[in-house]
Write a structure and sequence with these properties.
Structural class: alpha+beta
Strand order of the largest sheet: 1-2-3
Helix content: 40-55%
Number of domains: 1
CATH architecture: 2-Layer Sandwich
Strand content: 15-25%
Number of strands: 3
Order of helices and strands: HEEHHEH
Radius of gyration: 16 Å
Amino acid sequence: MDTTRQSKINRLLQKELSEIFLRFAQSGNGLLISVSNVRISPDLSIARVYLSIFPTEQRDSVLKSIQENTKAIRHELAGKVRFQLRKIPDLTFFADDTLDYAQNIDNLLNTLK
């Protein structure tokens, strides 16, 4: 169960990271990256960021690229939230596959009809 402080930081990080990835997606490479969820640890030192990447065929390569540039993303995030947070959490990025899971269930239900 998240505390009120954790929930506020989750929302703040999700909003700011979404803006960072929106600028990246507007560079014209045809990608859509959205931050579906952020979960911060109770000691506020580690943030798990779940990304939904479209098209899904490029998910692994894009996620690997993001993980390699975590330091630069964290630095850019620090510039945005420096007045709200004393310490910027370490970021770990994960692919959010809930849309694929939902699509798979939908396909299975359609085959039963």
